Amino acid sequence: PAGAQEGGGGGGGWVEGAVSGGARIDGPGCKVDTMLVLQGAQGALKSSAFQALASPAWFCDTKLPIGDSKDAMMQIQGVLIYELSELSGMKRNEVETVKAFVSSQRDRFRAPFDRLVSTIPRQLIFGATTNQAQFLVDSTGSRRFWIRTVMGRTDPREIEWNWDKWLAGAVDSSWPAGPGSLTDAEQALRTEGRPELAQGCPP
User: Fold this and answer.
1) How far is CA 4 from each of CA 35, 84, 114, 116, rounded to the nearest angstrom?
2) 108-111, Cβ contacts within 8 angstroms, sequence gap of 24 or more
3) To 5 degrees, how large is the angle CA 179–CA 185–CA 190?
4) Are the C-beta atoms of residues 29 and 134 closer than 8 Å to each other?
5) The whole model's pTM is what?
6) Lowest mean pLDDT: which of 72-76, 124-128, 144-148, 178-182?
7) Which of the pair, 142 or 152, is modelled with greater confidence?
8) Cα dihedral 191→13→49→139 (10° resolution)
9) What's the pLDDT score for residue 10?
10) What is the distance between the alpha carbons of residues 36 and 127, in angstroms, rounded to a whole number?
11) How much of the chain is in helix, strand and coil states, percent to nearest 5?
């Protein structure tokens, strides 16, 4: 459905996104340690799919300065889905930095002109897109990435129409691992054991 295939699970990956996003709205700071990654050709409407899932008012794809954690933590406030574009070409330490940032449950920083440090539970989830067939530094240790290959184009209208249905169907007893985790079966279907997605490790 909606163009995203591979990786298992109903809803072409959008169920996972809807559940994680809904969980963060209902319970700010809850554990969400996986990130949906859409891999496909240019023009596949990957970013449009994330925008449809969040709604334009709550979506952002501005380049995120993760290396400058304070600026990054301020920039993600007021967003439901933040898209990280082009994961390819990152060195292993850069991938580790992204994984650590994405899996945080709270942001702690002092905003400009504030006197005290604030602790803000996260109310957003992250998504990522890539045009490259091989974009991981290696095919192991990538538990944070829930990869879906887009066949053809996504259908943002279908995502908008089905968001409520996917969310309602996934938060019941059929989601035993909780909204921020994958079941053992889903773990077996994600990126582990897919060495075709791995690129040579940059120096």
Assistant:
1) 15, 18, 43, 44
2) 108/73, 109/69, 109/70, 109/73, 109/74, 110/70, 111/74
3) 80
4) no
5) 0.79
6) 178-182
7) 152
8) 0
9) 41
10) 5
11) 35, 20, 45
Query: Percent of the chain, pLDDT > 90?
Result: 23
How is residue 11 written in tokens? 């809803």
To 10 degrees, the CA torsion angle through 139, 155, 98, 195? 10
Return the residue matching tokens 């794809």: 61
Which residue has better confidence, 15 or 161? 161
Q: What is the Cα–Cα distance from 193 to 181, expressed in whole angstroms?
A: 19
The answer to whether residues 30 and 105 touch, using CB atoms and an 8 Å cutoff, is: yes
Least confidently predicted of 45-54, 139-148, 190-199: 190-199
pLDDT for res 29: 87
The per-residue pLDDT for 76 is 95
Q: What is the largest CA-CA distance in the chain?
A: 51
Query: Is the CB of residue 83 less than 8 Å from the CB of residue 61?
Result: yes
User: What tokens were used for 146?
Assistant: 């829930």
User: Any idea what the Cα angle at residue 129 is, between residues 128 and 133, rounded to 5°?
Assistant: 130
DSSP for 8-63, please give it.
-SGGGGHHHHHHHHHHHHHSTT-----EEEEE--TTS-HHHHHHHHH-GGGEE-SP
